[in-house]
Amino acid sequence: MNTTPLCRVDWAGSAVDIETRWIPASAADRPLLVFLHEGLGSVSMWRDYPALLCQALDWHGLVYSRPGYGRSTPRPAEQHWQPDFLERQASEVLPALLRELGVHQMYREVWLLGHSDGGSIALIHAARHPGSVQGLIVVAPHVMVEDISVRSIQQAREAYLQTDLKARLARHHQDPDSAFWGWNDVWLSPAFRDWSIEDLLPLIRCPVLAVQGSADEYGTLAQIERIGALAPLATTHVMAGCGHSPHRDSPDELTQAIKAFVARLPRHGG
User: What InterPro entries would the database entry show (predicted)?
Assistant: First the structure.
């Protein structure tokens, strides 16, 4: 991967720096795959999976850390994210980043690959900006809040307060409190309990591959089943025995599922 300088964008009237990393394909006219990380993720938390997948597809890649994460501008300590935080990332931050980088002028096709919260952001973006992307791959996405999600996020809070989780997150975030509390506080807020994006799924007009592990500790298979039932061009894939991070648990299986899905689409055949 090639690290680039921070990209400065305007978000709701404030300048924020966004950490990015580019992965080149063999030719300029290959599609671009934009990676959207999980609720505690960052560029470095993906490890080598984006490079391995892009190599397998021969696609360009763009990996970035959302504001509050990684080496991007931290969340101010006094700022509390609201229940619409995923919608704001999908409809404000991501479009601003793509615009600033000139992505749609440089690449003939743009796809999103989102993990967990990043998968939710990808789905929202495709519904709200239907002409912006040609396809989605969502891994362990959330389309609604389940009891299992809340329980696991409560356990994460306890681990952050009582174990070395903060120190481990500090390897990937310049301000681990920014990343952790921004995510944890909003997910555990009573106002977020009724959050859902199920009404947006029928608005998605591009192909969607929705992947989830059968042992996901943050959500049941109902998440991708709803996508399969409501998004017009959705395909679901269950990875047996995998937890919340299939790209870490079984990266080869995930890559093969993605390759097979892309190969079936007319614009990517062969």
Answer: AB_hydrolase_1 (IPR000073), AB_hydrolase_fold (IPR029058)
